[in-house]
Amino acid sequence: MEPQLTFRDDPLRMIRAIRFATQLNFAIDPVCLQAIKDQRNRLQILSRERIVDELHKIMATPKPSIGFALLHKTGLLHKILPELTRLEGIDEVEGQRHKDNFWHTLEVVDNLAKTSDKLWLRWAALLHDIGKGPTKRFDKEIGWTFHGHEFLGGKMVYKVFKRLRMPLNEKMKYVQKLVQMSSRPIILSQDFVTDSAVRRLIFDAGEDIEDLMMLCEADITTKNPNKQKRYRKNFQVVRQKIEEVEARDQVRNFQPPVSGEEIMKVFALQPSREIGVIKEAIKEAILEGVIPNEYEAAFEYMLKQGEKLGLKPVGL
Description:
Helix content is 63%, strand content 3%. It has helices at 3-9, 12-24, 30-39, 48-59, 65-73, 76-80, 82-85, 101-113, 119-127, 132-135, 149-163, 170-181, 184-187, 195-205, 209-218, 225-249, 260-267, 273-287, 295-308; strands spanning 92-93, 96-97, 137-139, 143-145.
């Protein structure tokens, strides 16, 4: 059948052709590629769910960049994920340039595909830099900056999932969290980083700390062997710090040593704001290293915090 007619009859065939090419490592005939370009506007009649199902299958391949590069080449990606295509290009001001964040992103996804088959972790890799488009600025003192791109990127993840009718549940929150935290681990490789900073990373990442580290390591795309070696060594340092602090302080999936029920009992309280204030103070004290993550220390700290709030223990 004539390619133009084939894709006009069922536009999903355009993405499926690219998906098959990615899965089987086949080349698409130039005539078919041109037909996909010509019919790309027909994509709008498809349900978001059918499109996303094909994206998932492309994402699950050993080298997802093949599919996303073809989606980009045919103009389909701009229709599906314009946030991603806006990352393409290299600007230069006063002789200073930045890397092409679109092609860098595809490299990151491929790197991650070598170490993990988790679908939503691969989505986190695909979206980890989408906040860089809107936050790109040139500073005469330090060059190109992308301040706050992680935070903005996390907010954009929600919009992407909603637009594509992807699940707005724990899967979206997982991707959002990894995008927002994607730059934090590398900061911890510095000598002057405190244990409290490591504790906070472990606390914030929770059970996803290993996935976060895998994403950060996949983000190393430099072709300079010396830089690559240095970056990988930095992450080894971070992993060691995480292991040491976690073994000592046990803050992953942190639960306060003193429960809200016990605070209520000690101070004869009904459910109230003071309970949350005391629990938060205990948590912060443990994360900051003011007290160890132990019951006795937390109980004494609770009494001090209660005194600050004008509360008196009952029956002690």
